[in-house]
Amino acid sequence: MKEFDVKTKIYFGENALKRLSELKTDKAFVVADPFVVRSGLIDFVIDPLKEANIDYYIFSDVVPDPPLEKVVKGVSEALDFGAEYIVAIGGGSAMDTSKAIRKFAGKINGAFTPKLVCIPTTSGTGSEVTSFAVLSDVKNNAKIPLASEDMVPDEAILDEVLVKSVPPEITADTGMDTLTHAIEAYVSVNNNEFSGALAEKAVEICGQFLLRSYNYNGDAHARRKVHIASCLAGLAFNSASLGLCHGMAHQLGAQFHIAHGRANAILLPHIIEYNSEIGAFGRSKKSYPPCVRKYCNMARVLGVNNLNEVTTIRAFVSYIQYLMMEMSVPLNISEMGRISREDYEAKIDIMAKAALADACTATNPRVPSLDEIKEIYRAIW
Ligand SMILES: NC(=O)c1ccc[n+]([C@@H]2O[C@H](COP(=O)([O-])OP(=O)(O)OC[C@H]3O[C@@H](n4cnc5c(N)ncnc54)[C@H](O)[C@@H]3O)[C@@H](O)[C@H]2O)c1
Ligand SMILES: [Fe+2]
Asked: 78 pLDDT exceeds 90?
């Protein structure tokens, strides 16, 4: 038996942030990205809370790839303050921090059961609608992906006004994260008609608007579309899960602190080639793995499908690489210029083992061996 549901109520469109002034509470614990506080974006949250006479406390000790230590600190401050609502504003890191704070604080004190409202300020992770949070074990250079139904936010608010300030590099990385979510969910062994529809729409929007929002920071229409695509892709992978690309990207983030979306982008063309068994010099065959038809559908949505499976997969991979080059995303690790080949090679074994064990890898359409994963890590150097 399969099931599909959307637990999160999504507010979007004009004045969506006004929802905050309607919260039925007198206390809100706000988890905010430090940039959001510094830049004054936080006022978009604070003003409606003040308007509704809601007392608030701001926890802004949020860092990218949230370490466990920061969550522990947040749990202690949340329990001291004791709110009925947690409002998170920021990128995936702030939202994941808030999800973990709510979960662990509730375990310590069973009476602490706040509702969670997530407000993304990047367009990438879709964390505002998912049951996932990715924490970091800094001492052991490891990522800890958590997944549980009780982490799904109760509400999400999408307002493009919050993403206008995202600089081009982060627009590119987070946009590639969205694209990867949609593509991996689409070919996941857990895919279904509902997740498929969401993933197709997310990819269609990325094809039309991602470059536009990268090239013209203030293009509110493009920003709004990509912000919604990120959420659609989040809903898709919340239902279908992800794949080997994320399983391997988590290890690049843990070992070399490569931004999550960038790590996915570098891997994605290689994962498509690996899953479809169609490499750079692919020849046509009598039959292909089932994921090839799905990748070809995605290529059609993007308008780059042509002659047959081989030419379409090649065009699909080229399109992704074209997007990356247009947005100055490095195509491989060496192009980044800050990691030595020796350091990289030294970590391949440990990364491959962790990628094989990563929960995302379990739903990849092709079951990888340890050696195959190592080969892909070598290929992206
Ligand atoms: N829970 C999920 O479902 C899920 C899915 C994918 C990724 N993730 C996790 O999310 C994290 C990545 O999230 P992210 O890509 O959103 O990045 P992020 O939250 O780490 O933010 C990246 C940078 O962007 C800045 N920033 C945020 N909003 C901004 C704005 N409006 N203007 C200018 N700068 C802004 C932040 O200060 C930070 O320096 C990773 O830890 C990743 O593992 C979680
Ligand atoms: Fe992701």
From this structure: yes
* CB distance 57 to 29 below 8 Å: yes
Q: How many angstroms does the Cα of residue 370 sit away from the middle of ligand 1?
A: 30
91 close to ligand 1 (CB < 6 Angstrom) = yes
Verify whether ligand 1 is closer than 6 Å to residue 90 (CB atom). yes
Q: Which residues surround ligand 2, an ion (CB under 5 A)?
A: 177
Q: Across the chain, where does the E strand assignment appear?
A: 9-12, 27-32, 55-59, 85-90, 115-120, 132-137, 142-147, 155-158
Mutate to test the pocket of ligand 1, among 7, 8, 31, 35 (most ligand atoms within 8 A of CB): 35
- What pLDDT band is residue 310 in, cutting at 50, 70 and 90? very high
Longest alpha-carbon distance in the chain:
67
CA of 133 from ligand 1 middle (Å) equals: 12
| pLDDT given for residue 84 in this prediction | 95
Q: How far is the CA of 246 from the centre of ligand 2 (A)?
A: 6
Question: In the chain, where are the structural domains located?
Answer: 9-165, 169-379
Q: How many whole angstroms separate alpha carbon 256 and alpha carbon 157?
A: 32
Topology annotation, domain 9-165 = Rossmann fold (3.40.50)
121 Cβ closer than 6 Å to some ligand 1 atom: yes
| pLDDT per residue as tens digits for the range 158-175 | 999 999 999 999 999 999
Helix axes 370-379 and 260-276, enclosed angle (nearest 10): 120
Please report the pLDDT score of residue 143 as a whole number.
82
> pTM score > 0.70 for this model?
yes
163 phi, psi to nearest 5 deg: -105, 0
* List of residues 6+ apart from 262 with CB closer than 8 A: 172, 173, 176, 329, 330
Question: What pLDDT is attached to residue 322?
Answer: 98
CATH topology for 169-379 is Dehydroquinate synthase-like, alpha domain (1.20.1090)
